[in-house]
Fold:
Amino acid sequence: MTQADYEQLERTSDSLLSDAEAILRVNKAFGFEAGRIDILHEAEFDATEQGASYIQIGTIPRKPLYAASDWNYIRFNVRAGCGEWYYEMVHSHLHQISK
Structure:
């Protein structure tokens, strides 16, 4: 989700989710075990300037928001035996994030 889209959702959403509420929404939508879900409150972005000799990563706040079943956002990870998997729930669709 672009930052502009997230900010629009944040302005129009009437529901900031608690971590517990966000975990339940992710569990119901995708079936991940609730005890393995961690809600994340920021997103990383590439802040590298063009022509730079190194990569710079920045972070921006991303609270879990819910306005409707087709207008929502939750960033989370799922802990597994082999590591962690990072995802975004954007408008009830699952998107895997490279970390």
Remarks:
- The mean pLDDT is 89.
- The beta strands are 37-39, 42-46, 57-61, 65-68, 71-80, 83-90, 93-97.
